[in-house]
Amino acid sequence: MQNKSRNFRTVLAGYIRQQDQFGHPISLRYKNNSTFKTFFGGFITILFRMGIIVFLVFEIMKVVDKKSNITNSQYRRNLVEDRRQYQIDLTNFDLAYNVFSSDPIITANIDRYVSVQLQEVYFAWSKDGASYTMDVKDLPLDKCPPGRFLGETVQTDNFGLQFNYKCPTTLNTTLQGGFATKEARYIQVLVGGCNQSILNKTKPNLKCANDSDIIKALDVLELNLLTSNQFVDVNEREGNPVKTIIKNFYATKYISIIKSNFFRKHNLLLYKS
C-alpha cells in the first residue's frame, strides 16, 4: 500500500515537473529534456496556465453578457478663449415651437396675432469695443413633417409635433462663443405682435388683427420650444445605445420667473409691436 502511494506521488511529481516552462537551459540533454526541470517550476507553470484560463473564462462571460465600462467625461470650456465653431444640422440637432393661448379663438387664429421668427445670427464687436456688427438671416418655417427630431416618434407623438408645431425647413448653421465673447454665432427666436410683412411671406391673403387685439393676445400668449438632445444609455444591449430625448422649454407672460430664466438661457425675445 505504501509502495502504491509512493508511486502515485512520484508520478504526480514527475508530471508537474514536466510542465515546468521556466527550466534552466543546459547544453546537454538531461533525462530526454533540453532544460533542467524542477517540481517548483512545474507547479508555477500550472498556476500560470490556470490563471490564463480563468482570465479567458471571465472575458468570455463579459462578451456573452455584453458588459462594458463606459466613462462619461464633462468639459467646461471658457467661451471667451475657446473660439472653436460647432456645426449643427438636422442629423444632430432639431428644434420646433408652438405658440398658443388660453383663449381658443386666439389659438385658432394665432397667425393674425403673433409673428414668430427663427434667425441665424452672427455678432461681432469692433476692435475698440465701441460698436458692433450683426448679420441676421431668417430661417424658413413650416409645419413639422414626419421624421423630424432624428426620427424619434414616441415623444413627438405625445407633443403632437406634426399637427401643432412649426420647424425650420432646413437647418445648417454654426454655434460659437457667447455674449461675452468677441464673436458669437447663435440661433434666436423672436416672438412678437403680428407683422403684416412677415405674414405676407407665408399667408398673403391673411390680415393681421388690430393693434388692441394683438396687445391683448400677447398678454395671454404661451410658448413651447422643443429641442433635441442625445445621451448614451449604458443599459442598452440590443439596439443603438445613443438615445434621443426632447427637451421642452415653456414660456408665458403669466409667470415672470419662468419667462426671465427662459429668455436669459435660451435667447428668446418676446416683444410687443
TrEMBL record:
Domain of life per record: Eukaryota
GO cellular component, as recorded: nucleus
Keywords, sorted A to Z: Membrane, Transmembrane, Transmembrane helix
Biological process per Gene Ontology, one example term: reciprocal meiotic recombination
Chain segments annotated as transmembrane: 39-58
Protein's name in the database: Uncharacterized protein
Gene this protein is translated from: Contig11092.g11856
